[in-house]
Automatic annotation (TrEMBL):
It comes from the Bacteria. It comes from Brevibacterium sediminis. This is MmcQ/YjbR family DNA-binding protein. InterPro entries: YjbR, YjbR-like_sf, YjbR/MT2646/Rv2570-like. SUPFAM superfamilies: YjbR-like. It holds the Pfam family YjbR. Coiled coil: none annotated. Residues 86-106 are annotated as: Disordered. PANTHER family: CYTOPLASMIC PROTEIN, CYTOPLASMIC PROTEIN-RELATED. Signal peptide: none annotated. The lineage of its organism: Bacteria, Bacillati, Actinomycetota, Actinomycetes, Micrococcales.
Amino acid sequence: MDSATVLRLANDQAMQYPSVELDHPFGPDNAVYKVRGKMFMMAYELRGVPSLNLKIDPLDGEVLRDAYAEISPGYHMNKKHWITVAGEGSDDGGEPGAATGGDRLDPDLLHDLVLESYCLVVAKMPKKDRPVDPDTFGGRSDSR
């Protein structure tokens, strides 16, 4: 999947979630997606490559970075809790997509990553402030 498609699909999905706001605090080229004021996704261009930062469980992030060439540690973010996702053809030896894994990012995985990022942020909110139940929203089950 190419980088522009990654950003388009992620945007379309995120904007359907309850209480999501799109902001541009770092300028017009950096789209920050927030749920109740807390960032869960950021879309930007890095050296000409459309890229996406997403919050991730640290163990999942490690596995994903090893398995997918399009997933790398979060650019300008906490490398343990964030990943950068860029589409195919973005491998430039150290930036998004520089991992050496053999699998390819597909729309279903991207969907799961955006959903997981949203739910991780919602789960940290006080229960009274949560727009959804993060354990069950989007077909997730609390048996995970």
